[in-house]
Write a structure and sequence with these properties.
It comes from Inhella proteolytica. The structure is a single chain. By secondary structure, this protein is an alpha+beta fold. Helix content is about 30%, strand content about 25%. The strands form 3 sheets. Strands 5-4-3-6-2-1-7-8 form an 8-stranded mixed β-sheet. It starts with 13 loop residues before the first helix and ends in a 6-residue tail after the last helix. It binds adenosine-5'-diphosphate and magnesium ion (MG). Adenosine-5'-diphosphate binds next to helix 2 and helix 5. The site of adenosine-5'-diphosphate has 22 residues, from helix 2 and helix 5.
Length: about 350
């Protein structure tokens, strides 16, 4: 076979660099929704409203009542590696916010038609920045931020081709919202599609939010557990064997308010069932781990959906023990009361 022709090394144009980076973070509308929700929560929103057209492919709007962005910083919000959340390595190592990479808005803007409208409490009016034209102009809205994402992947046809039907993309967006709603019960969330309200969760105590999002059935067929030592708190609800499911679709694990996937911890929960889960049945659970940020590395994956614990084995043991105890306690409750 012929030797490939060598071409000179050249730096990629900025826009292409952003589009390549976007591929890592935003593969579908739901990924954009997740990033925009992260930003709203980092901004201290108490109410977040998501509106979709065409399952999020035609338009995603995320509206919050958070701290807003001052007009002079709006262009910076769209720059790659520009963030208000960390300043140096020390802050990265103990990051408490959901965002810190300063990449999401730049990435989304490079594969869509994006605008930001924002108003800080001090501002006399809101300001809107149109990413394509770079144009800034006065706008009307209360305190907070609205991000509008139109025609996602219009300029990256390969990615656009991989999108599923609008109904499927919308279902993924709803799932992104459920994941956040389960971690932030004190925040109100609403999802609209084609101008109709699809789902709404008002601020509520934690258990009520779990019931609102996962259903009363899950709450009734699950048992709570809680454990706390300095620098670590584990809070959870484990579905009883009868609440096990055919698919692993009711498994919510959070680390410091962030939805993550973790094989070790998933194994800890699964193994607590020993032989009582038949065949391939999957346990259902909601587990929130709050841990000193210095004991966990969140900078492992561009989407931050994986983390690394300093003491993964110790955490596995604790979680397994909590799960085993929760199951044992529920079995004890079910034993018929002894004759007096
Ligand atoms: P990151 O969240 O990692 O900082 P982003 O690209 O998502 O990066 O956002 C860039 C910056 O824009 C944020 O650091 C924040 O200062 C600002 N920002 C984005 N969304 C919002 C919002 N909804 N409310 C207030 N500020 C926001
Ligand atoms: Mg962000």
């Amino acid at each position: 076979t012929a030797m490939p022709v060598r071409r000179p090394i050249a730096e990629l144009p900025d826009e292409l660099v952003s589009q390549i980076a976007a591929g890592e973070v935003v593969d579908r509308p739901a990924a954009a929704v997740r990033e925009l929700l992260d930003n709203a929560l980092d901004a201290g929103a108490t109410q977040v409203t998501v509106r979709l057209l065409g399952g999020g492919i035609r338009c995603i709007t995320v509206e919050d009542d958070g701290m807003g962005i001052p007009p002079e910083e709006l262009p910076l919000a769209l720059r790659r590696h520009a963030t208000s959340k960390i300043r140096d390595l020390r802050e990265l190592e103990c990051v408490g916010s959901l965002g810190f990479r300063g990449e999401a808005l730049a990435a989304i803007a490079s594969v869509s038609d994006l605008s930001i409208t924002s108003r800080t409490p001090e501002a006399a009016h809101a300001t809107r920045l149109d990413a394509r034209s770079g144009e800034l102009r006065a706008a009307a809205r209360g305190r907070g931020t609205t991000i509008e994402v139109r025609e996602l992947f219009f300029n990256t046809p390969a990615r656009r081709k991989f999108l599923k039907t609008e109904a499927t993309e919308q279902a993924h967006c709803l799932e992104a919202l459920r994941r956040q709603a389960l971690a932030y019960p004190e925040v109100g969330f609403a999802l609209w599609s084609e101008g109709k309200l699809v789902e709404q969760w008002r601020p509520a105590p934690r258990q009520q939010r779990l019931a609102d999002v996962l259903g009363e059935d899950f709450v009734a067929a699950s048992r709570p557990f809680e454990w706390e030592v300095p620098a670590l708190r584990i809070l959870g609800r484990l579905g009883l064997p009868e609440a096990a499911r055919a698919r692993a679709d009711l498994q919510y694990l959070y680390v410091n308010g962030r939805f993550v996937r973790d094989r070790t911890l998933a194994h800890a929960l699964r193994s607590a069932f020993d032989d009582v889960l038949h065949g391939q049945r999957q346990p259902s659970y909601w587990v929130a781990i709050d841990i000193n940020p210095e004991l966990v590395d969140v900078n492992v994956h561009p989407t931050k959906s994986e983390v690394r614990f300093r003491d993964s084995r110790g955490l596995h043991q604790q979680l397994r023990r909590l799960a085993v105890e929760a199951l044992a306690q529920s079995r004890a409750e079910e034993l018929p009361a002894a004759e007096p």
